[in-house]
Predict the structure.
Amino acid sequence: MSAREKLLHWLDTERDRQLEFLRAFTRIDTCNPPGDTTEAADFFRRFLDAEGLTYRTEAPQAAMPNLISSFAGPSPGRHLVLNGHLDVFPVGDRSVWKRDPLSGDIVDGRVYGRGTVDMKCGTTALLFVHAYLHRLRDELPGRVTLTVVSDEETGGKWGADWLVRNCADEVLGDCVLNTEPSGIHTVRFGEKSMLWVRFRIAVPGGHSAYPHTSPSANKIAATLIRELEAIEAMAPDEPEAVRQTLERAEVQQAADRSLGEGGAGVMRRVSVNIGVLQGGVKINMLPAECVLDVDFRLPVGIPRAAVMEAVAAIVARHPMVSVEELLAGNPESTWSDPTHEMVGHLTRNAAAALGYPPQPIVSLGGTDTRFWRRSGVPAFVYGCSPAGMGGIDESVSVAEFHHVLRVHALAACDYLMAGASAP
Ligand SMILES: [Zn+2]
């Protein structure tokens, strides 16, 4: 049997084992906050032990361990990195769940539980991909490294960001596969970046019956919001490969299908969310202060500096407004080449099962892949449908779970094999 045939054999004959692992993983509480993933990490270690895989733990926070498991084939080649996270969103109000959020129950072909979509399904898939590639290690050139991280839901400081900063030699590699929920109709080669800004409006204030004595901080906020919304019209200067990809009609259709109607447009422009608006203390007082926390999401081709320049021009018209940047991503490196060979491996193997190829798009939300892209390593995301992620009665399709596992296993194998001739 060829390596690929062996892979297909394990993918098919071990479906029950794969599914039971996902269910058992779902039953382990990894909600973040608090983000304690020690039990889940133990569960992964036991699997790696059973498969004869070596690993080590990197835990800058004791309750948030990260696992690194790596092996090399008999000949030099490419270094493929697999990345998934253990932690999941909090459950919230448990009483509104129809099913136990830690049940792992299967109903109508879906596994139920918090984090099944984001991303216990995907992380389980990559664990099995890693194990199957390890069984083929005598036939595969190059190296495979699995990174299973914690702290993704709260920013990655002690997880993927930590690994990329402190264990670069081990975890950077040549290409990264990630299984965050992308929807099986799309492969995500990039993501929008975040820019969080606080605006504080301060005026004298006073009695509401004396509007001639002071401006109103709240009314200034209303004007400011309208002016900030104009930033959504900024035209991105997309790199040629990105523009050509995102302009294709089939890509836009797939983006709408994956992100929801209208998602294709949002993918390519700045979005301005007035997340917090706090002003005034009493109905009959002129508000002296109003604070706006604004979440800008920047598409590929609009750098942070361009948005901050537009913000500065707006604020210059309102001398009573001060600006504080709360958080900025790194928009210069949030995308990988949409024509990268790995996109071909993922889409070809997915198309063989789906009957049509998934299309390359840019993600609206962020993933840990940004830490690799920041370091210049191409990274690609292909995962189950994002529908219901983080919501009440979260559940993942069993069929999509097996599909995602299969596509990543075959794409990884193809990528490593191709590295024998073209490192
Ligand atoms: Zn996630």
User: Anything to note?
Assistant: The pocket of zinc ion is lined by residues 85, 118-119, 152, 180 (CB under 6 Å). The first strand starts at residue 56 and ends at 58.
